[in-house]
Amino acid sequence: xxxxxxxVADDLPGVAPRLRxxxxxxxxxxxxxxxxxxxSPAHLSRLETGRRQPSLPMLLGLARIYGTTxxxxxxxxPPERDAIVRGGPIDDALGDGSxxxxxxxxxxxxxxxxxxxxxxxxxxxxxxxRVHPGxxxxxxxxxxxxxxxxxxxxxxDAGDSAHFDSLTPHRIAALGRGGASLLFVHTLLQSPAAELxxxxxxxx
Length: 204
Description:
Helix content: 10-25%
Strand content: 15-25%
Shape: elongated
Distance between the termini: 43 Å
Structural class: alpha+beta
Number of helices: 6
Strand order of the largest sheet: 1-2-3-9-4-7
């Protein structure tokens, strides 16, 4: 017998309260969370009260929205992770093979977001427009960076930052001859869509 509304076959008694708790912790209303997940508010309410069981695609979508994992939603204890990432020279970092961009991991693996140190050389990929799901945050460490969001051009100096929805067409380029260095955080954790942003050779 199939579970109602495409739910999972087994009851998941602990999921409902966790869904509600995570939504409230993230400061989302029932309506806004449902809209992001592609659900009706009534359906999400039934998931949060345990009157409906979520399907795996629903769990994946809700986990991404709440910045967590399906394992956490199911109450499974994640393995202990090292919270410290040691630095290293950026010239030992990985490049994307198409213009001299360099990347070094600046956050832990297996997380809901990925943090990188990036060096953007001058005069490369300035015409490459990127569009993909997720969010991006960057902070300029040194140099000057041009960030184009849709039709709007922003020139950033060291100490400036940008936080934007990655579905907004965007371009990034260094303005100075010495390039620009930045901290970069995105929510594309090990997603094929990350290749549209970081280049296919990046495997951190």
